[in-house]
Design a protein that fits this description.
348 residues, mainly alpha, 0% strand, single chain, Rhopdopsin 7-helix transmembrane proteins, 14 helices
Length: 348
């Protein structure tokens, strides 16, 4: 896991310094400032809407925890912007290396975990509703337990990266140089753990949403109804979470493979190649940071009450049940067809 995103000078060749300065110290700070302002508004609205209702379903538990993870992640952006612009000196770099960078990755991978839990909850409720463990895993108490376990495990692996960055200030500043020998080994272990979390979450989400899509398609086919509009709306809701996940997180984790190799086996990579990989890593990391702006868009598509509130309508009293319906795209005519054909209506 690359928490050493301040130390750009060690990865750039002399003839590329100006290019790096423009991208990492001028372009990226502006982009982070824009998404920080947008995400502050969007996540503020999301928190205001979701935390007004009781936690009466597993889905709401996971959505609330996603909002918390996004807000924590959002908190780290101003520190990065100020640091990239060259303000704050070494003290700010210490704060970023020891605390805000750790908080950034802690929040990011915690949010990824809750995305996968949402996918699993939807899969169990829609596709495997008759499965014996389905009702148990959808209990609010179980969901709260899984949420606490997620935060606990992620903190166990990530917080030592802050605690073990306790070495004196090095002459040539580097986040890794602040770490003790144990800190460097823990850093490597937590990096592998987080990468494993990502790929397990990605495969789980692909499986769950593919199964849900097939289930919905078969349901529509059985009623033999022209439901292209409803199916389109269903697909939009089904794949919004997966699309955001792929767009934000997959490029970074693909890029991390060659970038990590370039850092651990420097002799096998030229200075210019390491510089290029660093720039690509920074660009894809920005896509991961953009997730805090896109998560509220997911809520907009998935939750009718969130959408109505965002557009100025009055929130429904049945917020919890509405937010539990990830796809509420069935027309009244389609509803009656399902009812008449004795097929289960799919409320998400």
């Amino acid at each position: 896991l690359d928490m050493d995103y301040i130390n750009t000078t060690q990865t750039e060749p002399k003839n590329s310094t100006n290019v790096s300065s423009v991208f990492t110290h001028q372009v990226l700070p502006v982009l982070y400032t824009i998404i920080c302002a947008c995400a502050f508004i969007l996540n503020g609205l999301a928190a205001w809407i979701f935390f007004r209702v009781p936690t009466s379903s597993a889905l709401v538990v996971y959505l609330k925890n996603m909002v918390v993870a996004d807000v924590l992640m959002l908190f780290t952006y101003p520190w990065r912007v100020v640091g990239d612009l060259g303000y704050g000196g070494l003290q700010l770099k210490l704060i970023v290396c020891r605390y805000t960078a750790v908080l950034f990755y802690l929040s990011m991978y915690t949010g990824i975990t809750f995305m996968s839990l949402i996918s699993l909850e939807r899969y169990l409720k829609i596709v495997r509703s008759t499965f014996g463990m389905s009702s148990f895993l959808q209990r609010v108490s179980v969901a709260k337990g899984l949420a606490l376990l997620t935060w606990g495990v992620m903190m166990f692996f990530m917080l030592p990266n802050a605690i073990l960055a306790n070495q004196p200030m090095p002459k040539v500043f580097s986040c890794m140089a602040l770490k003790s020998d144990l800190g460097r080994r823990w850093h490597e272990m937590s990096a592998h753990f987080n990468v494993g979390i990502f790929w397990v979450a990605f495969l789980l989400m692909v499986f769950c949403y593919t199964s849900i899509a097939c289930h919905v398609y078969r349901s529509y086919k059985r009623v033999q109804q022209d439901s292209s509009v409803a199916r389109r709306r269903s697909n939009r809701s089904i794949f919004s979470l997966l699309a955001v996940f792929v767009f934000c997180f997959v490029p970074y984790h693909i890029c991390r493979v060659p970038y990590t190799l370039s850092q651990s086996h420097k002799d096998d990579f030229s200075t210019y190649n390491r510089f290029i990989l660093f720039q690509i890593k920074e660009a894809t990391l920005f896509l991961s940071a953009l997730n805090v702006c896109l998560d509220p868009v997911i809520y907009f598509f998935m939750c009718r009450t969130f959408r109505e509130s965002l557009l100025g309508g009055q929130p429904s009293r049945r917020l919890t049940s509405t937010c539990s319906e990830l796809v509420r795209a069935h027309t009244s005519n389609l509803h009656s067809v399902f009812t008449q054909s004795r097929l289960p209506v799919i409320y998400w």
